[in-house]
Amino acid sequence: MKGRFITFEGIEGTGKSTQILLLAEYLKSLGKQIVLTREPGGTTISDQVRKILLNPDNKGLDAKAELFLYAASRAQHLRDVILPSLVAGLTVLCDRFSDATLAYQGYGRGLDIEMIRTIDRLVTAGMRPDITILLDIDAATGVARAHGRNTSHGLEAEARFENEELAFHERVRQGYLILAGQEPSRIRIVDASLPPDAVQAAIRACIQKPAMKTN
């Protein structure tokens, strides 16, 4: 691939959307061609799946059904947006990717981690982001931020995960930290409790630091 694939991860309320936009503007100022996208979603078809996954009315959605819906959305997203953009040499900034499935459906929901990895390999053919920015924050703080954001921006229709119990978000956060410990070269942890400009400065430092090759 000629392009660069940068993903953003973290529990609810870490400020991913804001930081991705700031990074996009910074990279554009350097002459980079940027594609901004997100999961679930990113395509017309994937956005339809997003409505199912994030609708708070769908409380009874089975954990495995949730997993397969994410996989379906990702398959379409890769084919229609991510892979063509990378082949064209563009920089893709994506709000969530495979790590989110491991954190949320694996560590959060308790589904088998190896099963999730197997399904993801079928969908992605083993493709991994070049760099993943993990915005980390205390679960209680993040969820409180997310509820405030949803209220102020009218996003209650996409609040299914925000409505989960705090213990769920704590498991997801710990899952992300475990994943970061397993791949410290790719997954760079940034303290999301800092002021937004400090968070952005840390993100820029992360993407400028080359990833170490691992065997």
Q: Provide the CATH superfamily.
A: P-loop containing nucleotide triphosphate hydrolases
Helix count? 8
Number of strands: 5
**How many structural domains does the protein architecture include?**
1
Structural class determined from secondary elements: alpha/beta
Order of helices and strands: EHEHHEHHEHHEH
Shape: globular
Percent of residues in helices comes to: 40-55%
- Quote the average pLDDT: 94
- At CATH level 2, the architecture is 3-Layer(aba) Sandwich
Rg, Cα atoms, Å: 16 Å
Q: Note the main sheet.
A: 5 strands, parallel
Provide the low-confidence segments as ranges.
none
Kindly report the CATH topology.
Answer: Rossmann fold
Highest CATH level, the class? Alpha Beta
- Order of strands in the sheet with most strands: 2-3-1-4-5
Structural description of this entry:
The mean pLDDT is 94. A 5-stranded parallel β-sheet has the order 2-3-1-4-5, with helices on both faces. The protein is 55% helix and 13% strand. It has a single domain (4-10, 30-208), classed as Rossmann fold, CATH 3.40.50.300. Helix 1 (16-29) packs across helix 8. The radius of gyration is 16 Å and the shape is globular. By secondary structure, it is α/β, with parallel strands linked by helices. The two termini are 20 Å apart.
